[in-house]
Amino acid sequence: MIKLRKLTICLSILALSLITTTASADGTKKDRLIYSLDTGIGITGDRGNVGTPLQQDYDVAIRINDKKFVGMTIAAVRVPMGEVENISNLKVWLSKELKLETVNGKKTNVPDVLSQDVAMAKGWIEVPLEHPYTITDEGIYVGYSFKMDKLDDTNKRPVRITTELHEGGLFLHTSRSYRSWTDVSDQCSSLLQVELDGAPMYAASVLPGTTTYFGATGRENSVTFYVENHGATGVKSIEYAYTYDGKNLTGSYKLPTALSSIYGVTTSFDVKLPSVENKNYYPLDITITKVNDNDNEDEEKQTSSQICIFDKLPKHRAVLEEYTGTWCGYCPRGYVGLAAMNRLHPEDFIALSYHNSESADNPDPMEVMPGQYFPSVITSFPGAWVDRAYEVDAYGGFWASSKDLGIETVWQAVCDMLAEADINVDATISDDNSTVTATATLNFPLKIDNAKYGVEYVLVADGLTGTGQGWDQRNYYANGKQGKDFSEPEFKQFVEGDSYVSGLKFDDVAIATTRLTGDNQYLPESIEQDNDYKLTATFNLNKVRNTQNQPIIQDIKKLRVVAMLIDYNDGTVVNAAKTGYFADPAGISNVNTNGNFEIRAIYDISGRKLDAMQKGLNIVKTVDGKTTKIFMK
After folding, report:
1. Beta-bridge partners for 386
2. pTM (2 decimals)?
3. I need a labelling partner for 161 at 20 to 30 A (CA). Which of 264, 265, 347, 397 fits?
């Protein structure tokens, strides 16, 4: 089966403005490639400090063991000391292996290539090597060591790191905490930088965003590639050649911010493909031919992928699943994030809010399942996932402490990824208000064999509110304790509120799911293209209760259904759709469309925008801001 939606998400490509030239022994300037594990790629490139708050001596190392660097010469090392004080006996060193020997009763690092004393200073300390070293295929450890004279607030965690993860990214030995050399590369990487001579001057590789791109017939399609610096001069501009639909084409791109000479710094560029008329898979090969107007010297300057052209691209609605509790003082972030996104994107935003009780003595009355039955792994509250694939903060997105609505950027980026199928959902409530029946309609633009797809239905309640135990929201943002400059107005009630906020109305609350009742619906293993698959599930409203066995439905007119297409190969959400509120007779208006009001927009019950009224139920928004249900016979 071809995985259609596994696209690379790179939402935070940072252009680093670090030094790209260094002084040679004769005082002149020359370009050097910088080996650094802080490339700014992706969403985890935060910087920080590690260490143990004890007075102890430190040995810090990284390992260079990539064949690409064999033959290059280590000319200098840049040590990131930051603002630490009471540090002495600083050394930089190279070693083929990490060894400790007992010297004067202490386990001491013994480098086997070179060790060089360094004058202590704050910030970045650049150390030209007295004896430059050429890297062999054995690889090399590059490190620095120092003695802590006295423990203070500046040096409790003296090792500067990035949260990017790289093999060989950080090894530690200390006199008290790490008695043996310890590889902590699975947690973080050192900020140590290594300056290399002998690297190509103009070199850049091209990386695909995915192995398969997607587009539609009869229009230009834009695809995203990534250029990664491998050269000593960095990257200011590129020229590229590509083959597509039997044509040999060329293009160029001037980077808005040049890539520095750090090996591995990356940025994206888009290639616009000419339109084609036939639905098919088209090979797509691209080569970066020039860097900064010079021939590209890199060995990885070409990549191959393909573009799958459809007659129509499925609309992707990403799902934000929030995990919260009224006992959780930081959980107002999720409340505000969902409220703001519903305000900004009322038609397409889909959220599911799963509530959790802290304990039997501190319940959340909206909890309908214990935490072990959540669809995603949650280690702390608040928590959130998009499409069960990307762990986020329900307000800040990939930046959990942000005061801006970062979740909008993440959600939109995921929505821009192609979904394997279109999905729509309709739902009706029985005459006696005892059951809700939902029907999802799915259509795949391509034939898929060996499929493992199913549909999960979630019953959602809006406007839940109450008084008494568990209904007041705990609030760590009270009286501006976390600042008052949050970007969204929905935060005002929290930053100006008390430590508990009462009277809230909770929306998007997941109150039942077919995942737990065993009523998920499944598609056949062989999926036919352009075929409508209809799957139906039913909720018994009399059985919808919270974990305290109390009824949780407060107003049947504020119930909705979310249907999610799940890929059971990995459990991620492929696409989703939501209904409006159910069409009960009391809620349907029989207003004639020639009546005395001006229509702003018309939607069907699934939230799809319509050009005109259709038979059945229509959701009509008028220019005065009102929303009306109109049933057309």
Report:
1. 320, 390
2. 0.63
3. 397
